[in-house]
């Protein structure tokens, strides 16, 4: 069985809407065997699941792959995000990649937001970033705590 077949069976078995799932592919994995990768990602795209390029900017892929593959999101590697407060180069990379992702109509995710100063800098720079990941946002937690965390943050946002 292939990954798309196994995923399709699981989606059907558990009655999960494919758009609620995102498969992350490390950028370097996209380079090895283009025809196989293209076929698998194409089949996953046909299922309707999202496809994210993880660790973007650290690998050796060509930008043209962003056009040829059914990619739905771009995850800016944590090494650039964590360094953006102290490195002008890292800040320039985060800015460029976020604008590239937005111009290609991709969901842009910043990994490695380990403190809120990074989030605040992204806001000050008005970067087109859709999602933030990192300990500065929240630490991993059991589902019960996650539900409470979401409820608390939704209440805080509704008051703002």
What attributes does this structure have?
single chain; alpha/beta; globular; 5 strands; 160 residues; five-stranded parallel sheet
The helical percent reads 40-55%
Poorly predicted parts:
none
Q: For the report, how would you describe the main beta sheet?
A: 5 strands, parallel
Q: How many β strands by DSSP?
A: 5
SSE order, one letter for each helix or strand: HEHHEHEHHEHEH
On the 0 to 100 scale, the average pLDDT is 87
Briefly note the structural class of the backbone: alpha/beta
Q: Report the β-strand fraction as a percent range.
A: 5-15%
Helices, by number, come to 8
Shape: globular
The end-to-end span amounts to 49 Å
Strand adjacency order, main sheet = 1-2-3-4-5
Rg measurement, Å: 17 Å
SSE topology sketch:
Layout lengths: L2 H11 L8 E5 L2 H4 L1 H14 L2 E7 L8 H4 L4 E4 L1 H6 L4 H16 L3 E4 L5 H9 L6 E2 L10 H17 L1
Parallel strand pairs: 1-2, 2-3, 3-4, 4-5
Helix pairs in contact: 1-3
Short synopsis of the structure:
By secondary structure, this protein is an alpha/beta fold.
């Amino acid at each position: 069985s292939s990954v798309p077949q196994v995923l399709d069976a699981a989606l059907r078995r558990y009655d999960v809407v494919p758009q609620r799932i995102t498969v992350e592919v490390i950028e370097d994995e996209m380079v090895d065997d283009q025809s196989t990768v293209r076929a698998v990602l194409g089949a996953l795209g046909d299922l309707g699941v999202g496809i994210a390029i993880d660790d973007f900017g650290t690998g050796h892929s060509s930008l043209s792959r962003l056009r040829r593959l059914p990619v739905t999101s771009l995850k800016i590697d944590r090494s650039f995000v964590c360094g953006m407060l102290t490195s002008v180069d890292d800040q320039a990379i985060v800015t460029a990649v976020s604008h590239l992702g937005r111009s290609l109509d991709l969901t842009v995710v910043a990994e490695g937001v380990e403190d809120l100063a990074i989030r605040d800098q992204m806001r000050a720079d008005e970067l087109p970033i859709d999602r933030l990941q990192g300990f500065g946002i929240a630490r991993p937690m059991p589902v019960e705590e996650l539900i409470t965390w979401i409820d608390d943050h939704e209440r805080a946002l509704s008051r703002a």
